[in-house]
Each structure stands twice: as C-alpha cells, then as structure tokens.
C-alpha cells in the first residue's frame, strides 16, 4: 500500500514520523484469509501485529467448549499489539468473519517503531485508551434494557467502520450470536430486537453481500441514549 493510503485508512499512523512511514512498505507482509479462518490463535506467542485493510474479524475467547465473541474489528483497525507489549501468550484468538485482507508487522519491527517514534507511540496509547473506554461503556450499560445495549453496538460499529451510502450506513451483517455476545444480551432477545428494528425500517439486512444497512442512524442513536 502507498503511504498516503495507509495514513488515510489507519488512524494509528496519522501522526507517525515520515521516517516511520517510509520504511513501512519494506517490513509489512500482506495476507488474505477466507471467512471463518483463524488468523491468530489463543496461547500463541505474539510474533506480529495485524492491520485490517478490508473485511471483518472477531476477537474470541475460548473457555473449554464455550466460545464468546469479545469484539468486532473492521477496516482500519488492528489487533495483536497486547501480546507484543507485555511479551506474553495471546489471551484470545482472532477469526475472520468475512474474507479479509490484512498486513502484518513483526513484533521486533513494531517494537523498534515505537522506540524510535514518540508520536507513533503516543497515538497507540490513545487508541488503546479508546478501546478501554469502550469496554467501560459496556460495563455501564449492564443494567440497561437489551434494546439499548444492542443499539449501542450497532451505533459503535457504524461510527468505527460504517460505509456511508445514499440511503444509510452499511456495516457487516453479523451473525446474531456474535451480535448478542458483544452486546452482552441473550440470543433470543437479539433475534426479537433485530426483527423489530427491521419492521420499523431502521435496519435492513442484505444477505447477498452480507451487509446490514442502518437506514435510520438518528433513531438508533436515540435508542442507544447517544442523543
């Protein structure tokens, strides 16, 4: 990828020094995975950080035979940095939800970039704090009705990864189990709420291209308590 495209697509590189960006193409390795493929595996040592050029992945926690989706990541986001920073095995795995195009930077190279570029290091901290705030918001919503939690998830996905269209914003049409997990609600509630939102004309699933169209983001934000 060209430097200008990287800066535009990935917020992490917005403030990086020119020297950091100029060497990026030489150390980055591109990958393509089909849907439902493990990209990184729990308990594996963190040997790289990954950046999502296109497609969607989920961060998943496995406990025995039970799995729980912790987060959904899309275009412009990254994962794998925690295992590099604390030099510990990964605590979760990452699975592609759709065909996904990524590039990776080895742990050694990434650490060197952080040491050499203070602005890049600071930007990483900012984005990690943003993720922490999002986790705190989920905790604050624990006592809220299921519809409020689910609406917050849809709004957050739209804000982070949504593709604007004339008639709304497109996000990935998540399997309801994943949507239930990240919203911290039950699967049956998720089915009912999504059917209700569809009947109101606020959302519309497009199975052909696996997208979910948010037709009335204003009402979803109101339901989520964002306005």
TrEMBL record:
Signal peptide: none
GO cellular component: cytosol
Ranges of residues in domain Cyclic nucleotide-binding: 12-131
Annotated SUPFAM superfamilies: cAMP-binding domain-like, Winged helix' DNA-binding domain
Molecular function as annotated in GO: DNA-binding transcription factor activity
Full protein name: Transcriptional regulator
Species: Neosynechococcus sphagnicola sy1
Organism ancestry: Bacteria, Bacillati, Cyanobacteriota, Cyanophyceae, Neosynechococcales
């Amino acid at each position: 990828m060209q430097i200008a495209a990287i800066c535009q697509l990935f917020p992490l590189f917005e403030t990086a020094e020119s020297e950091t960006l100029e060497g990026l193409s030489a150390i980055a390795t591109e990958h393509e995975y089909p849907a439902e493929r493990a990209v990184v595996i729990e308990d594996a040592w963190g040997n790289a950080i990954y950046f999502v050029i296109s497609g969607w992945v989920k961060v998943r926690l496995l406990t025995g035979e039970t799995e729980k989706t912790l987060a959904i990541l899309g275009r412009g986001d990254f994962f794998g940095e925690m295992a590099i920073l604390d030099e510990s095995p990964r605590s979760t795995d990452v699975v592609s939800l759709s065909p996904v195009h990524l590039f990776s930077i080895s742990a050694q190279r990434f650490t060197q970039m952080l040491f050499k570029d203070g602005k890049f290091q600071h930007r990483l901290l900012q984005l990690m704090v943003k993720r922490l705030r999002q986790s705190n918001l989920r905790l604050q919503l624990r006592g809220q009705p299921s519809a409020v939690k689910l609406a917050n998830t849809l709004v957050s996905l739209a804000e982070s990864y949504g593709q604007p269209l004339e008639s709304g914003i497109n996000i990935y049409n998540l399997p309801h189990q994943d949507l239930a997990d990240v919203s911290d609600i039950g699967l049956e509630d998720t089915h009912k709420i999504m059917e209700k939102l569809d009947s109101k004309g606020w959302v519309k699933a497009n199975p052909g291209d696996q997208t979910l169209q948010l037709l009335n983001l204003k009402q979803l934000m109101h339901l989520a308590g964002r306005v």
